[in-house]
């Protein structure tokens, strides 16, 4: 059987699969392989495609000026020993990010000619992958990350691991290289992860992500529904609606959940028309609901899941309320601006209708009001043009002012 491919080139982030994936900025080394950097990048570009994904990767350097920094690729490439994301060459070439020397040595030898060894997929068409190499290599080649400001103590972290342990899973935490080393044990399988000291909530979320309940401790869907009903908020719902057991004995739940104020209550959703997703996947439904197939849980795990869901519902409700408030404020501001413009126009027209004209010039012959000629006779008067009286202008400007308002 072929050795698992060594995964490299994956970075930290909110949705990172492992806590120990590094920040690429902590691996920048301008002196590392400077004379061979382009050759290494060319080899990475020439890797054989292993798998393609639907979304693009993006550069983790906020000041990146590469024209395609938001579209660094959708594929994983490999050479029979290593597996890396398509965008890794960009980090080496443009940001001088260091990668393992073992991979760099092969890349320098081959350059743009690419791999010699073809990728060997497993019988199911996939590839066995070893993530442990990259996690440990990153821990050994980066400075210790700073602890979170509200991180719990190491003693509290150790106590949390003991509290959540089950016959099927356990975790141990110890200090190594200035960071926490977390070792998970699932039956006869062990894997490790590395992280800066975490807040209690973040550590609990990480542990529940990998924790496996005692099969005898899994609660019934009915009990799960009762627990979630106790914590329901904003008309939202979250409860298992079906179960599925795999050939290896592992039990999965299909969990229906919604955001705040779904358009239909759960009992009115026609589940006969819904195609259940595969384990680990989620599908969105109309009317604000979704179905996710997840491992069946014991009571501590389900309570944690419900509290996490409730927090997401509250956050989404708050965002929705904020949008409504901003929309109301914008509408009110628009109405006030419109009213102000109307008032300004009204004042302008009122001022134009009441302003008196300038006094006649010295060359104009003054006449008494009693002998004031009409407009037509004034133009033919032997005495020359005569200025109409102020009352005339008030009438004229008043009429035209009203027509043009």
What does this structure look like?
- The protein contains ten helices and twelve strands.
- It is α+β, with helices and mostly antiparallel strands and 405 residues long.
- The protein is globular and about 90 Å long.
- It starts with a strand and ends with a helix.
Can you give keywords for this protein?
405 residues, alpha+beta, five-stranded mixed sheet, 35% helix
DSSP strand count: 12
* Shape estimate: globular
Question: Could you name the ranges where pLDDT drops below 50 across 5 or more consecutive residues?
Answer: 361-384, 392-405
Number of helices: 10
Mean pLDDT: 85
- Spatial separation of the terminal alpha carbons: 88 Å
Q: Please give the largest β-sheet.
A: 5 strands, mixed
What's the SSE pattern? EHEEEHHEHHEEEHHEEEEHHH
**Helix/strand/pairing category:** alpha+beta
Radius of gyration: 37 Å
What percent strand?
15-25%
Helical fraction: 25-40%
Strand order across the largest sheet: 2-3-4-1-5
Summary, kept brief:
This protein has helices at 37-45, 88-95, 101-110, 132-141, 154-164, 200-210, 221-230, 299-354, 375-378, 390-403; strands at 5-7, 48-52, 75-78, 82-85, 129-130, 169-176, 179-186, 189-195, 238-245, 251-258, 282-284, 289-295. The protein is of the alpha+beta class and 405 residues long.
